[in-house]
Fold this protein.
Amino acid sequence: MQIPRSKTAITLILLSTIAVTLFALPLVNAHTPAWTIPTWCFIAVNNNPIGVNQEVLIAFWIQDPPPTAQGAYGDRWTFYVDVTKPSGNTETLGPFTSDPVGSGYAIYTTTEVGEYTLVARFAEHKITGIPVPPTDVRGADYVNDTYSTSKSDPITLVVTTEQVQP
């Protein structure tokens, strides 16, 4: 049984039309235009109170992990910590690069007795997905979105003359 040439031609034209349509369509981006996402930055210290010349652990984070982070790949957040000493002098720690879950930490040695004020700052970040993992890019819908800058509420660290056991 022979298939008429016209049916074969119509079938090929339809298949070609479907194939061209699939490849000619632009890739869909769920965020067109790109979003600007507000952030909330947080900070914590441990031990508090602490003795003068002792180390304190400072932890900082925002509400979301980097959406493309997976293992050693994808975006990371950047943080700074402003430390105001009892004398009024301010010292900026950082920049610190977050881990894949979006938090960071610093160890700080106190040098004065009194109350320190600490504030964490999150630097604005445009999602790139770089470095790109060898497999699927997690969070690819967020590429080109911007996470806006923010800073934590101040936290007070009390430093005493007596050494504190951790």
